[in-house]
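Lab meeting, item 3. Inverse folding demo.
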C-alpha cells in the first residue's frame, strides 16, 4: 500500500521514490560516499576484516571458491577493498547487489546485479543497507491511538489512518507506543528484506551492519533523519537527501543469530586500536609510524559514540 491521499503518502512510499525512483538520491553518480562516510571509507582495515571473515567462513565450509555477496554495494568500495586484502591468487566469486548502474572502473571479477543471487555458499555482507530499506512511521495521537504518519514531498507531515494488520502486530511485539506523541519506524519491510537476503544463501554466514536499537532501549520519538553533503538535515522526501532510520535488528534476527557491537566484532577479526609499543619507535621508526596510523584508524572504527556504535547481526545459514 502507498497510503496516498491528495499528495500525502506514508513514509515508506515517499522514501522509495526519493531514494530509488527516477533521479533518486541513491542513483546519483556520486553515490553514497559523496554525502556521508561509512566504516568502508574510514579505513582499509574494515575491508581487511571482512576479507578475514570471508576466508574463515570458506574454511569452515570447506570451500575452494567462496561467494562474497555485498548487498547495498554503493559504488563497489567494500568489494574493491576486500579483493585487495585477500591473499594473492585467492579465488572468490564476488557479487555487488545495487540498484545503481555498475561503476565504470569496477574490478572485472565483480558481477554487478540488482537482485541478490540465490543458492551460493560463502559470505553475504550488508553494510548500512537495512537502514535505507524504506519503512512507514507511526505515531500515537492525543488519545493514544497509533496512526500512520503521512508526508508530502516538502517534508510536511500529518497523521493518517490507524495502523492495523501486520504493521500493528509488529509494533505490539517489537515497539509498542503508549504515550501520545511517541513515534516508531515500522520494521516489517526490513524484517522481510533480511529474511530474503539471508535465505538466499545456500550455506554460509549472513551479516548485516547498521546503527541499531533493541527492545528496552527504543528511541521514544524514532530515528528518521536526512543526510546531505556530510551533514544531518531535516528528512524531506524530494530526492535531495539521504533518508535513513536506525534498525530494530533484534526483530530482523532469525533463530540462532548473534548481535555483536562493531567494537567486539572487529576485535574478533584482529582490528585493535591499541598503540604500538614505544620501543618500536627506536628499532623501526617507519614501522612504528605505520603501526601508529593503523591504530588510529582502528580506534575510529571501534570508537564509542561513533562507528564503534554499529551493531553486527551475524546469522549462520
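The presenter then showed the designed sequence:
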Amino acid at each position: 500500500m502507498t497510503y496516498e491521499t491528495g499528495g500525502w503518502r506514508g513514509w515508506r512510499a515517499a522514501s522509495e521514490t526519493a531514494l530509488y525512483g527516477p533521479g533518486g538520491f541513491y542513483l546519483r553518480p556520486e553515490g553514497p560516499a559523496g554525502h556521508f562516510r561509512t566504516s568502508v571509507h574510514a579505513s582499509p582495515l574494515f575491508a581487511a576484516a571482512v576479507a578475514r571473515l570471508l576466508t574463515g567462513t570458506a574454511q569452515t565450509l570447506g570451500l575452494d571458491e567462496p561467494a562474497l555477496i555485498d548487498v547495498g554495494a554503493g559504488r563497489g568500495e567494500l568489494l574493491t577493498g576486500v579483493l585487495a586484502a585477500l591473499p594473492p591468487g585467492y579465488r572468490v566469486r564476488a557479487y555487488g547487489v545495487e540498484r545503481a548502474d555498475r561503476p565504470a572502473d569496477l574490478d572485472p571479477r565483480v558481477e554487478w546485479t540488482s537482485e541478490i543471487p540465490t543458492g551460493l555458499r560463502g559470505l553475504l555482507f550488508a553494510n548500512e543497507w537495512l537502514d535505507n530499506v524504506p519503512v512507514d512511521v507511526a505515531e500515537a495521537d492525543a488519545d493514544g491511538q497509533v496512526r500512520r504518519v503521512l508526508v508530502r514531498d516538502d517534508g510536511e507531515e500529518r497523521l493518517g489512518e490507524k495502523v492495523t494488520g501486520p504493521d500493528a502486530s509488529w509494533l505490539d511485539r517489537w515497539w509498542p507506543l503508549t504515550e501520545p506523541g511517541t513515534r516508531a519506524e515500522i520494521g516489517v519491510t526490513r524484517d522481510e528484506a533480511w529474511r530474503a537476503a539471508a535465505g538466499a544463501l545456500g550455506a554460509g554466514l549472513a551479516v548485516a551492519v547498521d546503527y541499531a536499537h533493541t527492545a528496552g532501549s527504543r528511541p521514544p520519538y524514532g530515528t528518521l533523519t536526512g543526510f546531505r553533503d556530510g551533514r544531518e538535515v531535516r528528512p524531506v522526501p524530494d530526492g535531495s537527501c539521504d533518508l535513513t532510520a536506525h534498525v530494530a535488528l533484534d526483530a530482523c534476527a532469525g533463530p540462532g543469530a548473534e548481535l555483536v557491537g562493531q567494537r567486539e566484532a572487529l576485535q574478533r577479526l584482529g582490528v585493535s586500536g591499541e598503540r604500538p609499543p614505544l620501543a618500536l619507535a627506536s628499532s623501526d621508526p617507519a614501522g612504528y609510524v605505520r603501526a601508529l596510523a593503523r591504530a588510529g584508524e582502528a580506534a575510529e572504527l571501534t570508537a564509542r559514540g561513533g562507528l564503534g556504535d554499529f551493531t553486527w547481526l551475524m546469522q549462520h545459514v
